[in-house]
Design a protein that fits this description.
26% helix, 7-stranded mixed β-sheet, 34% strand, 170 residues, alpha+beta
Length: 170
């Protein structure tokens, strides 16, 4: 009997009708307490307005969404037009399978196609999976923002990481 092959993970652009799955994965991330300061997921309209349309990705296995990645502009000022903040979320059932790195790697390529020269991320130090995939994708630690905010009554540090493109903005 031949061994079963690993199901294929496909990446595709995110669409409005994917929001139910995207929101569910976002809520799973929120529930960990180590993904974001947010306590609830926004409406599609609010989320859509804040994220760059060409840089929204989904990871799928068949018809199941495994994770998503997107970019948010860091500022409306023209000097920062090529700087964006990274979000990557992976469904609980798909964690540890390389989905996050796959999404982040493609998000880097998509950002460079859009002329974005710097990607940044804020990550809780306890979120070692995110720290590891960012490092693997070429992000560097800029510093630690100590006691940046409170979550569930506890002060949290945030690691600031960034990746400067060798392609865009050179």
């Amino acid at each position: 009997m031949a061994p079963e092959s690993q199901p294929r993970i496909d990446l595709s652009p995110m669409r409005a009708d994917d929001w139910t799955d995207v929101r569910a994965i976002y809520l799973e991330g929120i529930a960990t307490g180590d993904a974001t300061f947010e306590r609830s997921a926004p409406t599609w309209e609010a989320w859509d307005a804040g994220h760059l349309k060409p840089c929204r990705l989904l990871a799928r296995e068949g018809d199941r969404v495994l994770g998503w990645a997107a970019l948010t502009p860091v500022s409306g000022r023209c000097a920062y037009a090529g700087v964006a903040e990274v979000s990557v979320y992976v469904a609980e059932r798909a964690r540890g399978r390389g989905v996050g790195f796959l999404l982040l790697s493609e998000l880097v390529r998509a950002s460079e196609r859009e002329g974005i020269w710097t990607l940044q991320a804020g990550v809780f130090p306890e979120n070692q999976a995110s720290v590891a995939i960012q490092r693997k994708a070429g992000f560097r630690l800029v510093g630690t923002r100590e006691r940046l905010g409170r979550l569930d009554g506890r002060w949290r540090d945030v690691l600031l990481t960034e990746r400067r493109s060798a392609v865009a903005g050179v």
